[in-house]
Design goal:
This protein is α+β, with helices and mostly antiparallel strands. Helix content is 32%, strand content 24%. It contains 13 helices and 14 strands. The chain has helices at residues 4-9, 16-21, 93-104, 125-142, 163-175, 181-190, 246-258, 295-317, 336-348, 350-357, 363-372, 419-427, 453-461, and strands at 51-56, 70-85, 110-119, 149-156, 199-207, 210-222, 235-240, 275-280, 325-333, 394-398, 406-410, 413-414, 430-436, 442-449. Strands 1, 2, 3, 4, 5, 6, 7 and 8 form an eight-stranded mixed sheet that branches. Strands 12-11-10-13-9-14 form a six-stranded mixed sheet. Helix 4 (125-142) links the parallel strand 3 and strand 4 (149-156). The radius of gyration is 23 Å and the shape is globular. The relative contact order is 0.13. Mean pLDDT is 88; it is low at 1-25.
Length: 464
């Protein structure tokens, strides 16, 4: 179905044949959520004790009068906290400010996260850094004065924030704080830019040392483009009422990020603003998780990894113009690093992604990306690539309905492809591409999406 946005761009005089060949997947007008994406938006949740959330309309972009664009997540008690940040050399002012604040406070005493959408506050010089500080101080003042607010921004790069407008509305954001689902959903909506739906999940869990205590974990992310993280994703916040020692929360988040947010790509571009923060206030009680060898830590780590992966996958499912969610599994590799590199190369390949959009079983593009993944860049010293042995390599499509995989290449020898079966598999929204390298026992997973016509349209129009 052609969206309202698409219909506005292309008049009704277009031919029926053209309408059948062009698919539009950007968000409909009026902030409506596309019908196919509504299933990813929760209607209820289990939220951590002591955390409150809000999302209000500030008008960071002057034309915005309908969408929340300032989010506040706040704890009623100080938290252990950590964050992972972009490795892009042009790091936005909120990244610099929040990293410095966490270091200054030794990952403790954080109580709030304030996030604006509509302007990234990136590449804005000393003035941008001052704006980030003013945002944090405004949230601190609203919460009682104690220093402890992380800040994030997302939107257009190279423009200063309308800082007076934001700071003057922080008290309103604080007054709107609440603990129920609608408050959390409003905050998740407020951090969106080109996202077509808010990304919010929550769950409850227990820990071995306190089986009678129900802990909760909630998280929100935003991102639909400029996604190829080298730490985390565009923006994200996770909060739990489990008690975690400050010295453990950073390695816990790092471990989870490497297995979730660092394993997604939409377009191969790492943002200037990437930040994921994790806060734990211990409000549910119980023994503090204080040792990396404890059963509690290992159990919590598993929970956070799985939770982070689910959040990260929602970003891929909302990739700009995306029509497919693709899991790249590279198995039987010489090392996990080699498997991740190969999976990333396949996931980023424009030729692979456009073939998937066209429902074309062009497995040669997958094999091509596999073959160059570990090759040295021009001018670099030659490095051995024994991790890739053509005679050992196999490629398959794996359906999501549980039926048998479709083998395309087996030990370097091409199979006779059943094109009808391939077309059936590629018709589905979800798909797994499995590459067996046959050089070891390591494995890695990446999640990606396809490239459609709409991706070009969205990004051609983004700033204007």
């Amino acid at each position: 179905m052609i969206s309202a946005v698409c219909s506005a761009r292309f008049p009704s005089t277009a031919t029926a044949a053209w309408r059948q060949s062009v698919r539009c997947y950007s968000a409909p007008v009026g902030n409506a959520i596309p019908a196919a994406k509504k299933k990813y938006v929760p209607t209820s949740g289990t939220y951590p004790k002591g955390f409150l959330a809000s999302g209000i309309i500030v008008g960071v972009k002057p034309k915005n009068t309908t969408k929340p664009d300032l989010a506040l997540i706040s704890s009623t008690s100080p938290c252990a906290a950590a964050a992972v940040f972009t490795k892009n050399k042009f790091q936005a002012a909120p990244v610099t400010f929040s990293r410095d604040l966490l270091a200054k406070k030794s990952n403790t005493g954080i109580h709030s996260v304030l996030i604006n959408s509509g302007c990234a506050n990136a590449v804005t010089g000393k003035g941008g850094l001052e704006d980030a500080r003013l945002m944090s101080q405004a949230a601190d003042a609203a919460a009682g004065g104690a220093e402890g607010t992380l800040v994030m921004s997302t939107g257009v790069i190279g423009q200063r924030l309308p800082i007076t407008k934001i700071v003057s509305n922080v008290p309103a954001a604080h007054s709107k704080l609440g603990a129920d689902h609608e408050h959390w959903l409003a905050a998740a909506r407020a951090i969106c830019t080109t996202d077509t739906f808010p990304k919010l999940i929550s769950k409850s869990f227990t820990l071995p040392s306190a089986p009678g205590i129900q802990y909760s974990l909630a998280g929100m992310t935003k991102g639909a483009g400029m996604i190829h993280p080298n730490m985390a994703t565009m923006l994200g916040v996770m909060a739990t009422d489990a008690p975690v020692a400050p010295e453990l929360i950073k390695p816990l988040l790092r471990y989870a990020a490497d297995r979730s947010f660092n394993s997604i790509t939409i377009d191969g571009d790492t943002s200037t603003n990437d930040t994921v923060a994790f806060l734990a206030n211990g409000a549910a009680g119980g023994p503090t998780v204080s040792s990396t060898t404890s059963a509690d830590y290992l159990a919590l780590r598993d929970v956070v990894v799985a939770f982070s992966a689910e959040l990260a996958q929602l970003i891929v499912r909302d990739g700009e113009g995306a029509t497919k969610f693709v899991t790249i599994n590279v198995v039987d590799a010489a090392s996990e690093a080699a498997a991740r590199t190969v999976a990333s190369a396949i996931a980023r390949s424009p030729l692979v992604k456009t073939a998937l959009y066209g429902k074309d079983a062009n497995w040669g593009r997958i094999l091509c990306a596999t073959g160059y993944a570990l090759v040295s860049e021009p001018g670099d010293p030659e490095t051995p690539v024994e991790a890739i042995v053509p005679e050992n390599t196999s490629v398959s499509f794996v359906p999501t309905d549980g039926s048998a995989e479709l083998k395309l290449l087996v030990d370097g020898e091409p199979e006779t492809v059943d094109e009808k079966r391939a077309a059936e598999i590629l018709e589905a929204e979800d798909l797994e591409i499995r590459v067996r390298l046959g050089t070891g026992s390591a494995k890695a997973t990446y999640w990606t999406c396809d490239y459609s016509h709409e991706y070009i349209t969205i990004n051609g129009d983004y700033r204007t």
